[in-house]
């Protein structure tokens, strides 16, 4: 990737927003997918938002929608891997509830 292409990629999302929500079911690779969407969105200059409480949270709005940060997904895979090791069942709705509501 040339310097110009790199700069162009970093500006693709400027002025755009992405909402991240899940329907709550377990799905292999969902944690990594959510983290990737957040990070790529932020890298390209888009504003990224977590929607808590799934589709109902999107409809209700308010405190159910919070802006995501790079840090909010930094330990995502490590934390969830340790939960799996200890045998706890969780899904993406649980994860989004656990994320800080700043």
Automatic annotation (TrEMBL):
Keywords: Cytoplasm, Glycolysis, Kinase, Magnesium, Metal-binding, Transferase. Residues 18-78 form the Phosphofructokinase domain. It catalyses: beta-D-fructose 6-phosphate + ATP = beta-D-fructose 1,6-bisphosphate + ADP + H(+). InterPro entries: ATP_PFK, Phosphofructokinase_dom, PKF_sf. GO terms for molecular function: 6-phosphofructokinase activity; AMP binding; ATP binding; fructose-6-phosphate binding; identical protein binding; metal ion binding; monosaccharide binding. One of its GO terms (cellular component) is membrane. It comes from the Eukaryota. Its cofactor is Mg(2+). The keyword Transferase applies. Pathway: Carbohydrate degradation; glycolysis; D-glyceraldehyde 3-phosphate and glycerone phosphate from D-glucose: step 3/4. SUPFAM superfamilies: Phosphofructokinase. Signal peptide: none annotated. The keyword Transferase applies. GO terms for biological process: canonical glycolysis; fructose 1,6-bisphosphate metabolic process; fructose 6-phosphate metabolic process. This is Phosphofructokinase domain-containing protein.
């Amino acid at each position: 990737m040339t310097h110009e292409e790199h700069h162009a990629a970093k500006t693709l999302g400027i002025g755009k927003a992405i909402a991240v929500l899940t329907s709550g079911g377990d799905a292999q690779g969902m944690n990594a997918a959510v983290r990737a969407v957040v990070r790529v969105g932020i890298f390209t200059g888009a504003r990224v938002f977590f929607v808590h409480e799934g589709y109902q949270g999107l409809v209700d709005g308010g405190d159910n929608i919070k802006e995501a940060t790079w840090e909010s997904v930094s330990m995502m895979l490590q934390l969830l891997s340790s939960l799996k090791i200890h045998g706890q069942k969780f899904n993406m709705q649980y994860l989004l509830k656990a994320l800080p509501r700043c």
